[in-house]
Amino acid sequence: AAPADALPAPLASGPRGSPGYLHPNLVCALLNDVFGVQARGGCGCAGPHAQRLLGMGRALQAHIEAALVRGSAAQPSGSAWRGAELVRPGVVRVSLSSAMTPAEAEVVGAALAWVSEHGWKP
Asked: Which residue in 120, 93, 101 sits closest to 26, CA to CA?
């Protein structure tokens, strides 16, 4: 079972009717640039745990790993562009401080809800 503080489903897969996956760096950019909510995104150091939270089976893990290896090998040495990185799964982390007012915490919650519902739209 996922820990109580994990929020994997709404942001990882997008809402019903969406085309699917929201890249964690896109979610972070939206939270920061639109709402001023600082967030961190990436695959984290606990890859297997994150993969379980995201509901990834072994076949999907192998498919993504193969795409990352192929994409990396196709790039010139030292290239900053890694197009295959777009398929790397990840998580978004947002911290709530004990110094926050209830109104500030509500803004964070509303921002997360907005990104979950609208972040995938062009």
From this structure: 120
Q: How far apart are CA 76 and CA 93, in angstroms?
A: 32
Question: What angle (nearest 5°) sits at the alpha carbon of residue 15, between those of residues 12 and 106?
Answer: 80
Specify the long-range contacts of residues 41-44, CB closer than 8 Å, at least 24 apart: 41/90, 41/91, 41/92, 41/93, 42/90, 42/91, 43/88, 43/89, 43/90, 43/91, 44/90, 44/91
Helix (H) or strand (E) holding 65: helix 58-74
The residue type found at 100 is M
Total-model pTM: 0.69
Q: Are 25 and 76 in contact (CB under 8 A)?
A: no
- Condensed to tens digits (0 to 9), the pLDDT of residues 84-121 reads 677 777 788 898 999 999 999 999 999 999 998 888 88
